[in-house]
């Protein structure tokens, strides 16, 4: 599924190559750049867990890439593909991602080398809790130290196990729940976290499509309405991105999952496809759509926007020449290899990089962490105040105009913000502001030929300034 385990491609070196390309456009001396690039701490562990009648030795990692801001932040993935190179690369991407969206964390990442589908929930719980206590032993977890989150193969359930284990090891710790994000809402989680990354992808691409000058260059009109979209991967990120694109007026023409891919130039109804998959166990043979012989072929379909939302290194030097999309939105981490990047940039494709585009998850994780530290739900203090203020304004307007608004209009106008409204609003503001920052660098820095380099410059500048101001270079 992922090509990064063949010898020739190191994911971490790919990240370093992008870093080196961008660092030439910054003002920092070599030493600071070396410090930003390096992984500060790498924890590799093996621990025993009793599974059924046997004892299994589990391999796991946690990497803290940067301490220019604390805590470190990054997901934990359960996958047989987990290895040190991948975890280091993803931790580095987290550092740059947080910097780009102005979230005050250093980058981190964790992984457990297992196939989560092969274990019962009870066995997964044992593995997750043991992993958490290993992290705690080495001081690699805590609200002010390192805050994990869900990633590939993990979700709210695993995060609640981590929070509970950490809390039991730190009795009386007032902020224990802030040791991990992506928790269930009942356990201190935040509404809107599940769809955050996919919604962030939607906001980011919507913003990219709003600039007439950039769209003219691609031969496209502004806005999302009527644009054809292909989504590879219908996990949490891909599904929610597809859902918001469809809601925003775009046309889903191709969808892929690991069992295969389907295509219909007239458009696919996402919910109907998901219902078909639930009923048959596969998206293939969906009524009205044609099956593609391999899931990878979906990347080469005719479309305006291509969203790779599965694993890394799916677009390589080999298939990049066949990609027909005009905009590629990297919803997954590292879906393009550096070779693919070069080919697509030469073709004039607008590649919106992962270190910006999939930062919706960490942005909302930050909101959850703040909620846990403040011990108050978003909207609790202002919701009624807002509703009362709006009601007074509506009453004044009605008495001045002698006109009454309908009950439906009244309900819409008087609604105060719920937690999820405030989360969406914060996420939308973050994605729009950050895109504009990157685009500014892209447009105004001589020699910068693509958005990825611009995004890395944006990140390096912020981390570099933080290091300078920390005064940690004696």
Q: Write down the CATH class of the domain at 11-20 and 28-186.
A: Alpha Beta
CATH topology of the domain at 11-20 and 28-186: Rossmann fold
What is the gyration radius calculated from CA atoms?
23 Å
Q: What is the count of β-strands?
A: 12
Shape: globular
The CATH homologous superfamily of the domain at 11-20 and 28-186 is termed Leucine Dehydrogenase, chain A, domain 1
**What would you call the structural class?**
alpha/beta
Describe it.
The chain is of the alpha/beta class and 474 residues long. It has a domain at 11-20 and 28-186: 3-Layer(aba) Sandwich (Rossmann fold), CATH 3.40.50. It is 45% helix and 15% strand. It has 16 helices and twelve strands. The chain has helices spanning 11-23, 30-37, 84-100, 121-137, 156-169, 196-208, 212-218, 236-247, 270-280, 338-346, 354-357, 360-374, 383-401, 407-414, 419-444, 451-470, and strands spanning 41-51, 54-64, 72-78, 106-112, 146-150, 228-232, 251-257, 260-263, 290-292, 305-308, 327-329, 350-352. It has a seven-stranded mixed sheet with strand order 9-8-7-6-10-11-12, sandwiched between helices. The protein has a five-stranded mixed sheet with strand order 1-2-4-3-5. The radius of gyration is 23 Å and the shape is globular.
């Amino acid at each position: 599924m992922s090509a990064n385990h063949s010898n020739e491609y190191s994911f971490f070196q790919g990240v370093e190559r992008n870093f080196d390309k961008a660092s030439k456009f910054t003002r920092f001396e070599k030493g600071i750049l070396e410090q930003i690039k390096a992984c500060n701490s790498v924890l590799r562990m093996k621990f025993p867990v009793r599974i059924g009648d046997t004892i299994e030795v589990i391999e796991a990692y946690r990497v803290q890439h940067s301490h220019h801001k604390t805590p470190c932040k990054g997901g934990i993935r359960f996958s047989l593909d987990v290895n040190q190179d991948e975890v280091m690369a993803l931790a580095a991407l987290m550092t740059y991602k947080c910097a780009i969206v102005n979230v005050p964390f250093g980058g981190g990442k964790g992984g457990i080398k297992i196939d989560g589908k092969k274990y019962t929930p009870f066995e997964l719980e044992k593995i997750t809790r043991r992993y958490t206590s290993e992290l705690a032993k080495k001081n690699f977890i805590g609200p002010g130290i390192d805050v994990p989150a869900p990633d590939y193969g993990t979700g709210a359930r695993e995060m609640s196990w981590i929070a509970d284990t950490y809390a039991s090891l730190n009795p009386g710790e007032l902020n224990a729940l802030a040791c991990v994000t992506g928790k269930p809402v009942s356990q201190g989680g935040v509404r809107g976290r599940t769809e955050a990354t996919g919604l962030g992808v939607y906001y980011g691409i919507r913003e990219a499509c709003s600039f007439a000058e950039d769209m003219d260059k691609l031969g496209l009109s502004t806005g999302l309405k009527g644009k054809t979209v292909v989504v590879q991967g219908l996990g949490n990120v891909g599904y929610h991105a597809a859902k918001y694109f469809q809601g925003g007026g775009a046309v889903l023409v191709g969808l892929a999952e690991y069992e295969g891919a389907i295509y219909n130039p007239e458009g696919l109804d996402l919910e109907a496809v998901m219902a078909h998959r639930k009923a048959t166990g596969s998206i293939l043979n969906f009524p009205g759509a044609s099956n593609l012989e391999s899931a990878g072929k979906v990347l080469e379909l005719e479309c305006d926007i291509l969203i790779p939302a599965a694993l890394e290194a799916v677009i390589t030097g080999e298939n990049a020449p066949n990609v027909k999309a005009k905009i590629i939105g990297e919803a997954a981490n590292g879906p393009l290899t550096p070779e693919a990047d070069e080919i697509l940039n030469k073709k004039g494709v607008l590649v919106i990089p992962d270190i910006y585009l999939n930062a919706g998850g960490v942005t909302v994780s930050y909101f959850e962490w703040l909620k846990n530290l403040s011990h108050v739900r978003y909207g609790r203090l202002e919701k009624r105040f807002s509703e009362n203020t709006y009601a007074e304004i509506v009453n004044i307007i009605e008495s001045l105009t002698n006109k009454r608004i309908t009950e439906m209009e009244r309900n819409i106008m008087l609604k105060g913000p719920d937690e999820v409204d405030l989360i969406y609003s914060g996420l939308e503001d973050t994605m729009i502001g950050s895109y504009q920052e990157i685009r500014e660098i892209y447009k105004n820095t001589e020699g910068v030929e693509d958005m990825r380099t611009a995004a890395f410059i944006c990140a390096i500048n912020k981390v570099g300034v933080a290091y300078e101001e920390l005064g940690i270079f004696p």
